[in-house]
């Protein structure tokens, strides 16, 4: 089973922050890190999960209504009087590029199923090319058209693509319906097809586990049981407990 850090080490540190990514990057045996990208009002690519900034920062309102400068003023509470800022995608690549050159992978989820973010595909593909990390990334989205577009603009198909949905059957439906993703990214409870039917695919499952500052539950997943359902990789908030 391949282990990925979901939004970085997001149980122990604030999700999608440089600290959460840094903590994940040093884990031995980690397959990669997952993160979420969106566009600011002035067109900059930033890393943040929610379309609204109020859950993770001291700000309010939609992320896409803020400029980068406005977003950079927002604080992400990291406990003990410390705080983080919403990172720009380029800052994350600056942090991770050496580890990525040595094999660490990055799953970039384009958060564009609610707000379509015109041009985000071109922006992220060109940024990844600038860092020469094409073969280290997996682009994913719930929005099939976006994956289709990424496949068209990614020269040589060097980067991997993946389609997200709640059920693995819906991932497969979108894949066969034309988006042509390389991998399936279902919710772990959505494994509604026999394992034999999906055996030829990479199936990376995501979870709804606890996130910082919630306390860890102490429970541990049965990875063997998940493997038997056809899951090949898992996105975990606490990857450090499984490596
Ligand atoms: O990419 C897997 C997973 O992150 C998708 O769900 O809501 O955590 O972005 P979400
Ligand atoms: Ca995500």
Task: Work out the radius of gyration.
Answer: 17 Å
Number of strands: 11
Ligand species: SN-glycerol-3-phosphate, calcium ion
The secondary-structure class comes to alpha/beta
Give start-end ranges of low-pLDDT stretches. Answer: none
Average of per-residue pLDDT values: 97
Count of alpha/pi helices: 8
The biggest sheet amounts to:
8 strands, parallel, barrel
**How far is it from the N-terminal to the C-terminal residue, by CA?**
11 Å
Sequence of secondary-structure elements: EHEEHEEHEHEHEHEHEHE
Overall outline: globular
Summarize the structure in short.
28% of the residues lie in helices and 20% in strands.
Question: Can you walk through the features of this model?
Answer:
The chain is of the alpha/beta class and 243 residues long. The protein is 28% helix and 20% strand. The protein contains 8 helices and 11 strands. Helix 1 (18-25) packs parallel to helix 3 and helix 5 packs across helix 6. The longest helix has 13 residues, at 89-101. The mean pLDDT is 97. The structure holds SN-glycerol-3-phosphate and calcium ion (CA). Calcium ion binds at residues 34, 36, 109.
